[in-house]
Amino acid sequence: MRNNNQTIVLGGGCFWCMEAIFNELEGIINVTAGYAGGFTRDPSYSDVCAGTTGHAEAISLEYDPEKISLEDILDVFFLTHDSTSLNRQGADVGTQYRSIILYTSEQQREQVDTFINRVRGDYDQPVVTEVKPLERFYTAEEYHQRYFERNQNLPYCRLVISPKLDKLRKLRKKAG
């Protein structure tokens, strides 16, 4: 049996939020928090937070395209972050929180471009999501992996991540 799984890297603010959201979806095989889109080799969390590495907090998604389409992934991505906000998501400010999609194939790039062109009219402001090929993904430190799952009662998780998950669940139930 062939493994047709694909990988795409998404940044939409804090990677803890993005990881928790995409861990909810059927067809997502693996979600890894990390750093991508910049120029510094082997960055640490403190390096990325300093805003000097060019990297965004991001998640690497391995998904089964027979169970979840890239379009469905992009739908969730655009519904759960502000793609019109440059270098910030809510109270998180800096280039490390920018909206970014890093594709791993030309087919993905075409699908992403088509998707963004289709949804541009849904927003009052321009979509500022950066789209570029993935050069390198750096896995974040272990304590960032499955952060929400392990820290649900911390204030940030309760006040920021839980409402995003509730929104996703309501949308899925409504569609469902």
Q: How would you explain this protein's 3D organization?
A:
The chain has 176 residues and is of the alpha+beta class. The chain has a single domain (6-175), classed as Peptide Methionine Sulfoxide Reductase, Chain A, CATH 3.30.1060. The protein is built from 6 helices and 8 strands, in the order βαβαβαβββαββαα. The protein has helices at residues 15-22, 45-49, 70-79, 106-119, 147-150, 155-175, and strands at residues 6-12, 28-36, 56-63, 88-89, 92-93, 99-103, 130-133, 137-139. The strands form 2 sheets. Strands 7-6-1-3-2-8 form a 6-stranded mixed beta sheet, covered by helices on one side. A two-stranded antiparallel sheet has the order 4-5. A hairpin with a 2-residue loop joins strand 4 and strand 5. Helix 1 packs parallel to helix 6 (155-175). The longest helix is centred in the C-terminal third of the chain and has 21 residues, at 155-175. It is globular. The two termini are 30 Å apart. The model has no long low-confidence stretch (mean pLDDT 94).
Annotation keywords:
single chain; alpha+beta; 6 helices; 35% helix; 23% strand; peptide-methionine (S)-S-oxide reductase activity; EC 1.8.4.11; Peptide methionine sulfoxide reductase MsrA; oxidoreductase
What's the alpha carbon Rg, rounded to whole Å?
Answer: 15 Å
Give the full name of the CATH homologous superfamily.
Answer: Peptide methionine sulphoxide reductase MsrA
N/C terminus separation: 30 Å
> Helix segment count?
6
Along the chain, the helix and strand elements come as: EHEHEHEEEHEEHH
Question: Percent of residues in beta strands?
Answer: 15-25%
User: In CATH, what is the class?
Assistant: Alpha Beta
Main-sheet strand order equals 7-6-1-3-2-8
In round numbers, the mean pLDDT is 94
CATH architecture, by name, is 2-Layer Sandwich
Which stretches are low in confidence, meaning pLDDT under 50 for 5 or more residues running?
A: none
Give the overall form. globular
Domain unit count: 1
Number of strands: 8
Per CATH, what is the topology? Peptide Methionine Sulfoxide Reductase, Chain A
